[in-house]
């Protein structure tokens, strides 16, 4: 079982992380770079630059861009593998073979639980925004993600209305409690339009990752099941 989880998580995570990184480069990263300009302008007093150093700074910027892109790719793959293992665990507990269409449903559920529903209280934060304190945000996000997983499972996999009602309660409860708020008077440096654009693009990027995770995980587990059947027939 552990082998199945690791193989499924590794393959689906690498594929999903690699494909999603393409969307990140074109849809999310340009907005981050634009936001960082506002952040720097608000925090650093502009100074004159000697002409002789401009070429050096351009070279450093190019090197930093390559390094940033490399770290972004690695981070997306690592996150993809982690979520892939979680998804494979859910599929294993489910105990049935699923096709790619059902895999999409599992991917959508993962997107809802770990991206969209937490984002209703804590939307993705662009550099230069005015966030709440880190620890309360982490606690609320983890609690919301956990409650969302439980809630979706109760709503989808139970036929009794009392359990469905309990699932809806679990989905709604974190938002009734409310997410942590920024301290009074905190002001972000980024224009609201840019921040809103970042939230939409980031959610789209994560949706792509989760859909690919669902499809790839279902395919890999189908292949593993088929190989297990062949092995059993050969041994018999």
Describe this protein's structure.
The protein has 236 residues and is mainly α. The protein has a domain at 2-36 and 69-129 and 190-235. The protein has helices spanning 2-43, 54-94, 100-121, 134-157, 161-177, 192-235. Helix 2 (54-94) packs across helix 6 (192-235) and helix 3 packs antiparallel against helix 4 (134-157). The chain is flat. It starts with a helix and ends with a helix. Mean pLDDT is 87; it is low at 45-62.
What's the arrangement of secondary structure elements?
Blueprint (H helix, E strand, L loop, with lengths): L1 H42 L10 H41 L5 H22 L12 H24 L3 H17 L14 H44 L1
Helix pairs in contact: 1-2, 1-6, 2-6, 3-4, 3-6, 4-5
Major sheet attributes:
none
Number of strands: 0
Question: Please, how many helices?
Answer: 6
The helix content, as a percent range, equals over 70%
Terminal Cα span = 21 Å
Q: Name the shape in a single word.
A: flat
Output mean pLDDT.
Answer: 87
Radius of gyration: 22 Å
Tell me the strand percentage band. Answer: under 5%
- The ordered string of helix (H) and strand (E) elements is HHHHHH
Low-confidence regions: 45-62
Keywords:
236 residues, mainly alpha, 6 helices
In short:
With 236 residues, the chain is an all-alpha fold. The chain has a domain at 2-36 and 69-129 and 190-235.
């Amino acid at each position: 079982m552990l082998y199945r989880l690791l193989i499924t998580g590794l393959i689906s995570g690498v594929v999903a992380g690699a494909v999603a990184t393409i969307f990140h480069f074109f849809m999310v990263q340009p907005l981050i770079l634009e936001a960082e300009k506002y952040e720097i302008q608000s925090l650093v007093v502009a100074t004159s630059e000697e002409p002789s150093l401009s070429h050096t700074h351009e070279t450093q910027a190019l090197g930093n861009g390559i390094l940033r892109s490399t770290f972004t790719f690695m981070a997306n793959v690592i996150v993809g593998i982690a979520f892939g293992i979680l998804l494979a665990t859910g599929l294993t507990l489910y105990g049935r073979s699923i096709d790619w269409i059902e895999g999409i449903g599992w991917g959508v559920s993962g997107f809802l639980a770990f991206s969209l529903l937490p984002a209703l209280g804590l939307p993705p934060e662009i550099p230069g925004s005015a966030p709440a304190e880190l620890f309360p945000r982490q606690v609320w996000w983890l609690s919301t993600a956990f409650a969302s997983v439980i809630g979706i499972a109760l709503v989808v996999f139970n036929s009794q209305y009392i359990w469905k009602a309990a699932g809806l309660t679990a989905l709604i409860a974190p938002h009734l409690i409310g997410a942590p708020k920024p301290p009074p008077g905190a002001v972000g440096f980024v224009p609201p339009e840019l921040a809103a654009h970042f939230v939409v693009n980031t959610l789209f990027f994560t949706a792509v990752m989760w859909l690919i995770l669902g499809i790839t995980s279902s395919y890999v587990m189908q292949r593993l099941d088929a190989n297990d059947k062949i092995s059993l027939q050969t041994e018999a």
